[in-house]
Amino acid sequence: MTGTLYGVGVGPGDPDLMTVLADRLIRNARVIAYPAPENGASFARSIARNSIQPETVEIPIRIPMQVDRFPVQEIYDEASQKVSEHLLQGDDVVALCQGDPFFYGSFMYLFERLKDRFSVRLVPGVSSMTACAAAALRPLCAQSESLFVLPATLADAELSDRMSRGGALAIVKVGRHLPRIRELLRRLGRESGAVFVAHASLPGQTVAPLADAPEAAPYFSMILVPGIDPYAAS
Amino acid sequence: MTGTLYGVGVGPGDPDLMTVLADRLIRNARVIAYPAPENGASFARSIARNSIQPETVEIPIRIPMQVDRFPVQEIYDEASQKVSEHLLQGDDVVALCQGDPFFYGSFMYLFERLKDRFSVRLVPGVSSMTACAAAALRPLCAQSESLFVLPATLADAELSDRMSRGGALAIVKVGRHLPRIRELLRRLGRESGAVFVAHASLPGQTVAPLADAPEAAPYFSMILVPGIDPYAAS
After folding, report:
1. Gap between the Cα atoms of B216 and B122, Å rounded
2. Residues paired with A198 in a beta bridge
3. Strand locations in chain A, DSSP E?
4. Count of CB atoms within 10 A of residue A32's CB?
5. Nearest chain B CA: its distance from A88 CA (Å)
6. Between chain A's N and C termini, which has fewer beta carbons within 10 Å?
């Protein structure tokens, strides 16, 4: 009997926003895996730290900061190999994923490599998006409103096209794109009411009207923009 | 000192998908409130049932099945009045919300009425959307992909416009709109790869290719459609 690979969302940052199931799976895990920077601490692991037992085997998946496509693929080939050795021995492996594993999560890399050979189960987590809305006390979407989730890394033309359609917006992966996104929203008349959120649910949490957002935004930051007529159907 | 109103997401259905914080707040609550049908059991309460203590005061907010706008507004006026009486006595009130309170949640009705008079805190929950993706073992969005969340209640023209833009789609509130949505996706060449999910994380969970979805879809069902080139940037 081979083991099962669990893709487990550990939520946006506050350990209390892990699910009861994630907490239990991590406490009982013989093997865990998680993404980590080349040097230093893993964010996903830091969220789960109080649930990890001393005897649990840990597989950090270390990703250099600046890489093009191929090294990342090689790193995940190697990580999948390590994970599969444990699965073949009959041990389950719990892969920790910040936020939700299937909402812009790096768990996709392990999943694609292992889903056809092993049993995989997903445990959804609180996403950064709903955590940012909670932090900002700003409803994401209501009633018959659309919500467009847009990575800030998209080109101006694509962003403008989607931003001009009236639905509520959640712009993710803001980071260094902040000034550009702000300018696009301003041109479309949608800056008013937009809110910037960084490090939602963590001690360093920042919530500010977009006009007052800090110039140096972290990668894990988000801009929420209300729909043009959010309560139209209420 | 007045109390605090907590809007607490209890997740998609499996009690184990409540957050550690939601579980703790509900266990310690003196007063809880939750939406319920006119007759019968509340879904939000049923998710939290094992955390609710016998001495906790319960405020069910009973919504008739078929109502136009005004009775719902009146029902929430009355519920807000009841909730505010407890807050004014200095008790916190924990409002239970299935999924996440700010992702198409009915908590909005209490929030709008009470946010300017009382301290309000939001506890995000696992949304039905990420739970459906987990149930279907289908990533929602990756890398530089957009995700469009579209209520099935929108008109054909609006849905077609958004569906034709290439991003991944999560179509919510499917219910009786299933045949219409399927036809729209078919016409746009996006039916292939689409998956239908109902009752994610619950014992009655259904996952099926859209072509094989049951004709009578429940209101709480969803269609997930992969982006046209989901791993373009991976």
Report:
1. 34
2. A206, A221
3. 4-9, 31-37, 57-63, 93-97, 119-123, 147-151, 168-172, 195-198, 206-209, 221-225
4. 25
5. 21
6. N
Return the residue matching tokens 């879904």: B43
pLDDT in tens, B185-196: 999 999 989 999
**Residues 6+ positions from B55 with CB-CB distance below 8 Å:** none
- The four Cα atoms A164, A168, A169, A170 give a dihedral, to 10 degrees, of 180
Q: Give all strands (DSSP E) within chain B, no chain letters.
A: 4-9, 31-37, 57-63, 93-97, 119-123, 147-151, 168-172, 195-198, 206-209, 221-225
Beta strands A119-123; A168-172: pairing state: unpaired
Residues A7, A16, B6, A129, CA torsion sign: negative
> Residue A38 has which token pair?
């080349």
Structure token digits, residue B131: 């739970």
Number of other CB atoms surrounding residue A87 within 10 Å:
21
Q: Is the pTM of this model over 0.90?
A: yes
For A114, half-sphere exposure in the C-beta direction (CA atoms, 13 angstrom radius) is 31
* Distance (Å, whole) CA A151 – CA A126: 18
Question: Which tokens in the block code for residue A40?
Answer: 């230093």
The ipTM, to two decimals, is 0.95
Count of beta carbons in the 10 Å neighbourhood of residue A164: 13
Whole-number Cα distances in Å, B16 to A161, A205, B29: 40, 27, 19
Do residue A20 and residue B20 have CB atoms under 8 angstroms apart? yes
Q: Is B153 on the interface with A (CB under 8 A)?
A: yes
Q: Please give the distance of CA A22 from its chain centroid, rounded to a whole number.
A: 16
Question: Do A15 and B18 make contact, defined as CB atoms within 8 angstroms?
Answer: no
B183 — contact with chain A (CB < 8 Å)?
no
Regions of chain B short of the pLDDT cut 70: 66-70, 229-234
- Residue B6 at interface with chain A, using a CB cutoff of 8 Å: no
Q: Are B125 and A131 in contact (CB under 8 A)?
A: no
Does the beta-carbon distance from B103 to A17 stay under 8 Å? no
Nearest by CB to residue A146, choosing from B14, B15, B162, is B162
Q: Where do we find the tokens 């907590």? A: B6
Q: Which two tokens stand for residue B211?
A: 């072509």
The reply to whether B130 touches chain A by the CB within 8 Å rule is yes
Interface check B230 vs A, CB under 8 A: no
Residue A131 identity (one-letter amino acid): A
